[in-house]
Amino acid sequence: MVTKIESKYYDIVIVGGGVAGKSAAVTARRTHRRVAIIDAELRNQSSTGGRDYPRGEGLSSFKPIAIVRTEIDGVDAISARAVDVAKDENSVVIRLHDGRVVRGRRVLVATGLVDELPDVGGLRERWAQDVFDCRGIRGVEFRGHSVGILGSGPRTVAKALSVSQWSDRVTLFLHTAPQPTDTEWEQLAAKGICVVIGAVRSLVIEDDKLAGVLLADGHLVPVEKLVVTPTKTAQVATLAGLGLTATPHPVVGGTYLESGANGETRLPEVWLAGSVTDLLATVVQAAESGVRAALAVAADLRIEDVESARSGQWAPFSAKNEAKNTELILGDRRHGLDVTKL
Predict the structure, then answer these.
(1) Are 58 and 64 in contact (CB under 8 A)?
(2) pLDDT digits (tens, 9 = 90+) for 126-144
(3) How far apart are CA 161 and CA 211, in angstroms?
(4) Strand-pair category, 225-227 with 131-132
């Protein structure tokens, strides 16, 4: 069980409730820091199962997130959406959609990304159920099914060829993708991949399952699974007040926030974890980055605390204080310069 919110000032505030954020929260709390996690809607909460993750493989619900959520003992879980992150003189200030304000010495941003899907009716409703962004971890689910590839970019043919290693019933819908080259046509034919030329209008759903793809000309092509390539955009609107802006990704398109190896940014109070800084991160990689960033933040706070203690230790021995002590003890017998008048 998580603790009740007693304070609105923390050592570490984690913004984002996905795998990266939850992993960071568990790790940060074990460093004996005051930790809060702002847990809003998850990008993949509609997913029917975790993949490529220990304890999550093949489960009927996204157990990795559920397991972590119940194990963050001692962390203040705030069910809200952050709308603005800014800095004042002494802390990072996170404003929530309901008017509350949370302050922290450090903020770890794990807000993830938004999947911007092609403009085809029904895609959003079936996302993460029988419509997927395939990056090589859906092979088991594709076996024995007819799989469609919705073309929307230059790597469409490569994706179709990749899926063909799991299913022998693959249909490539060119949709808005460029025409294959002569070599690509030969590759598609060699793998027995059917190619459908023309725009896709919408999906056809029967008994709460994908039954096929409806073309703009009215033809229906049966498929049971559909692979799409969304544009992945880092969720960074709340960071505008900090001056952090997203960078176009040089390989897969979309945008991300740049960070160092441990999630550090050019702002010493702001750290990153998960897909907001790595668009291609799998569940395992997102969890690992959350742990790594939390440990780095804890180390950074420890260094700051030591330096603060060291400075405080020598504060009583300032020149001004020594002059006052000399006057009290020696009075008229003192000699030398009066440093209080320098």
Answers:
(1) no
(2) 988 889 886 555 566 778 8
(3) 22
(4) parallel
